[in-house]
Design a protein that fits this description.
The chain is of the alpha/beta class and 273 residues long. It has one domain (14-272): Nitrilase/N-carbamoyl-D-aminoacid amidohydrolase (4-Layer Sandwich), CATH 3.60.110. The chain is built from seven helices and 14 strands. It has a six-stranded mixed sheet with strand order 5-4-3-2-1-14. A six-stranded mixed sheet has the order 6-7-8-9-12-13. Helix 1 packs parallel to helix 2 (74-86).
C-alpha cells in the first residue's frame, strides 16, 4: 500500500487508485465485502478515486444475464454508501437493465454518493459473443474530478483508437478503463494502454481483473500510462491497490508542445473509409 498523499501535492493533481482484484464468482455480496475493504484502504492512502475492474462484482461472463439490475440496484446502492462513508469517488460496473438487451455499464460515483456519469461499453467482445447478449453503448462518458477532465472506456474498447481520439477532442485528460483482459493477450493490453495514451496525449488508467474464473484466466498487470506513453504505475498478478498521480497540467503541456491534435483530418478519414 502507498502512503497517504503529501500535503505538498498541487491541488490540481488527483490521486487515482486501481483496485486489482478477483471476484467471488457469481456472489456480488461477498465481492462487495472484499471491495469495501479496498475502498477504505484507498481512501486511507489518500486516493481521490478508486476504479474496479470490469463487472468485477459478479465476474465478467459475456453471455450471462444472471445479475441484471438498474442503476439504483443493489451494487450501485452499495457503492454509493461506500463512497460517502470513505469520502472517495468510485468507478464500478454492472449489467444494466435495458431493452432489448442489457448493457455493460460503468458508473462513476462521487465522494458524496451521487452518480457523476455512466458509460455503456461501445465495442462488445464478439469473439466471446458478448455482442449477442448485450446492447452496445452509443455515447461517451465524461466527468470532472478536481481539475481533471476524465473519460471512461471498457476493456475491448482499448482496441479501437477512435473512441480515445473522440475523448481527446473533448479535452479529456485521463481515461479510466475497467477491464477483464485475459492473461493470454496481456501483451496487447500493455501495447494498447501505452499507445492510446501517447497518441492522444492523455493518461490511460487500465484496471484489470486477476485470478481464474469459469470464463478465463487473468493475471492483472493493471497499469497507468502518462501522456507520453510512459508507464508510471504497474501491478503484478496479485490482488493489490496501485496508486497513480494524474496531473492535468502534464497533459495540457504535452498537447501544447506537440500539437498532434490539430493535424488530424477527421473528415478525410471518413471519406477514405
Amino acid at each position: 500500500m502507498s502512503q497517504p498523499r503529501s500535503s505538498q501535492r498541487p491541488d490540481r493533481v488527483i490521486r487515482a487508485c486501481s483496485a486489482q482484484m478477483a471476484p467471488v464468482w457469481g456472489d456480488p455480496e461477498k465481492t462487495l465485502t472484499k471491495a469495501e475493504i479496498l475502498i477504505r484502504h484507498a481512501a486511507a492512502g489518500g486516493a481521490d478515486i478508486i476504479c474496479f475492474p470490469e463487472q468485477i462484482f459478479t465476474g465478467w461472463d459475456p453471455t450471462s444475464h444472471e445479475h441484471i439490475q438498474d442503476s439504483d440496484g443493489m451494487i450501485v446502492s452499495f457503492l454509493k454508501t461506500a463512497a460517502q462513508d470513505a469520502g472517495i469517488a468510485i468507478i464500478g460496473s454492472i449489467q444494466e437493465r435495458s431493452v432489448p438487451l442489457p448493457r455493460n455499464t460503468a458508473v462513476v460515483i462521487s465522494s458524496e454518493g451521487t452518480i457523476l456519469t455512466t458509460y455503456a461499453k461501445i465495442h462488445l467482445f464478439s469473439p466471446a459473443r458478448e455482442n449477442t447478449a448485450f446492447s452496445p453503448g452509443t455515447g461517451l462518458g465524461t466527468f470532472t474530478l478536481g481539475s481533471v477532465k476524465c473519460g471512461l472506456a471498457i476493456c475491448y474498447d482499448l482496441r479501437f483508437p477512435e473512441i480515445f481520439s473522440a475523448y481527446a477532442a473533448q479535452g479529456v485528460q485521463a481515461v479510466f478503463v475497467p477491464s477483464a483482459w485475459p492473461a493470454s493477450r496481456i501483451r496487447h493490453w500493455e501495447l494498447f494502454i501505452a499507445a492510446r495514451a501517447a497518441e492522444n496525449q492523455m493518461y490511460v488508467i487500465g484496471v484489470n481483473t486477476t485470478g481464474k474464473t469459469p470464463v478465463d484466466v487473468y493475471d492483472g498487470t493493471s497499469m497507468t500510462a502518462d501522456p507520453d506513453g510512459a508507464i508510471i504505475s504497474r501491478a503484478g498478478d496479485a490482488e493489490q491497490l496501485v496508486f497513480s498521480a494524474i496531473d492535468p497540467a502534464v497533459a495540457d503541456a504535452a498537447r501544447s508542445a506537440f500539437q498532434v491534435g490539430k493535424d488530424r483530418r477527421v473528415a478525410l478519414y471518413r471519406d477514405l473509409a
